Sequence to fold (255 residues):
Amino acid sequence: MDAWRTSITQVDETNIRIRGYEIGSLMRTQTFAGTVFLLHQGRLPTVGESRLLDAILISVSDHGPGSPSAATARLACSGNRKGLSSAVAAGVLAIGDEHAGAGEACMAIIAEGLTRVRTESISIDEAAARVVDEAQAKKKRLPGLGHRQHTTDPRKDVLFAMAREHELARDGVAFMLALEKAAASKIKRLPMNIDGVLAAILYDLGFPAEFGKFVFIIGRVAGLTAEVAEELGREKAMRIHVPVVYDGVPPREVT
Fold:
């Protein structure tokens, strides 16, 4: 059987090295966010890159027990009090295209739009306007825009201000702001949500589209552990009862 190959971590009798860096050195000098950056990009981040990724992880860590991932984790914990890992895993499994998938989709749109800017010699504003037009024609939602609860996502200005402060706000940020403006002009005001914000910044940091979902999973696991711990500490087993309304056929006999 051929050996597995990896360029991530090297382990021997006395050492653990991540991307070539001795783990003790990373423990003394890096943040967790900085190590996530190293794991995925193969290099150590600058102070600004590390701080921005840390802020993104904080921003997605929890959004209340009603979010699909947290609700699923708490429901699993309610029925299996000793299954800590299964409860957290259940929450992670609830993350997908509808819940936290918009970041990945938004990064793909940013990449496509900026490719048009380069190949067709058009402005970012024009490329964003075309994306909105195409979404309308296909009757598709624009990922990264609109929110069920917030009229203005409180995380947007903070993250964009940090990106500018560290001189890391580039074409990704510019494109998403142009997309938000174009949508407001052509459809209605659709405030940029956290998926659109993190997609813009992660694109500018050089991450691939799939990291838009990965970063949500990494950050949300922290929140899921807290949700499960609260379920264990404050609530009784089997306490979650989902309202059910039967709308099937009336009672009948087997003939």
